[in-house]
Write a structure and sequence with these properties.
Strand content of chain A: over 45%
Mean pLDDT of chain B: 93
Number of helices of chain A: 0
Order of helices and strands of chain A: EEEEEEEEEEE
Shape of chain B: globular
Distance between the termini of chain A: 40 Å
Structural class of chain A: mainly beta
Oligomer: heterodimer
Strand content of chain B: over 45%
Number of helices of chain B: 0
Largest sheet of chain B: 7 strands, mixed
Shape of chain A: globular
Low-confidence stretches of chain A: none
Mean pLDDT of chain A: 94
Largest sheet of chain A: 6 strands, mixed
Radius of gyration of chain A: 13 Å
Distance between the termini of chain B: 30 Å
Order of helices and strands of chain B: EEEEEEEEEEE
Low-confidence stretches of chain B: none
Chain lengths: 113, 115
């Protein structure tokens, strides 16, 4: 119930392409869904987050799409750049979880020049 | 540069040593966290402090001992660690723990190697 399943495990995209990473969850008590970006040797950095009262949130080239009925959410990176090459983690938390984040297993994104 | 500062960046210690990891934030956050991250894996929660009191201990072995001296500082005291404890130790902070949508801000971690 507490799992967040993330796919794909790795993704290779050409520069200028669209990168799509998907996550699915079971626990309907989750009410906050952040995405983190992590570069080698660095800590995870909050990229964008969404709450289930909206179906889409866009910040620059990054968009979260949220499907509450399907219990799925995804990250779209438009016009992908080599500098976007990193590991991306989706996560979820509940209001009773004491801010405990449940992370997906991560997606290693490589954007080729 | 991240707003959560962790020191040292790298630490190599023997299994009989005692060392401490330090974390500092000046964002006025009242919740602070310790995570452990193994290579190619997501962070695993270890401890949560809320208003300087330990609120969550994820059944972490007693060889890890957290301390929160004040609202800006978080320490992790290490003693008699095992080789499998080698990992990246991440500190994070958030405004509070009472609501789920308080984003957590991570430091860049301490890379710990146990010989």
């Amino acid at each position: 119930q507490q799992q967040v399943k993330q796919s794909p495990q790795s993704l290779i995209v050409q520069k200028g392409g669209i990168s799509i990473i998907n996550c699915a969850y079971e626990n309907t008590a989750f009410d906050y869904f952040p995405w983190y970006q992590q570069f080698p040797g660095k800590g995870p950095a909050l990229l964008i987050a969404i709450r289930p009262d909206v179906s889409e949130k866009k910040e620059g080239r990054f968009t979260i799409s949220f499907n509450k009925s399907a219990k799925q959410f995804s990250l779209h990176i438009m016009d992908s750049q080599p500098g976007d090459s990193a590991t991306y983690f989706c996560a979820a938390s509940t209001p009773l979880g004491g801010s405990r984040l449940t992370f997906g297993e991560g997606t290693q994104l490589t954007v080729n020049p | 540069d991240t707003e959560v500062t962790q020191t040292p960046k790298h630490l190599v210690m023997g299994m009989t040593n005692k060392k401490s990891l330090k974390c500092e934030q000046h964002m006025g956050h009242r919740a602070m966290y310790w995570y452990k991250q193994k290579a190619k894996k997501p962070p695993e929660l270890m401890f949560v402090y809320s208003y300087e009191k330990l609120s969550i201990n994820e059944s972490v072995p007693s060889r890890f001992s957290p301390e929160c001296p004040n609202s800006s500082l978080l320490n992790l005291h290490l003693h008699a660690l095992q080789p499998e404890d080698s990992a990246l130790y991440l500190c994070a902070s958030s405004l509070g723990v009472l609501q789920s949508y308080q984003p957590q801000h991570f430091g860049d971690g301490t890379r710990l190697s146990i010989l």
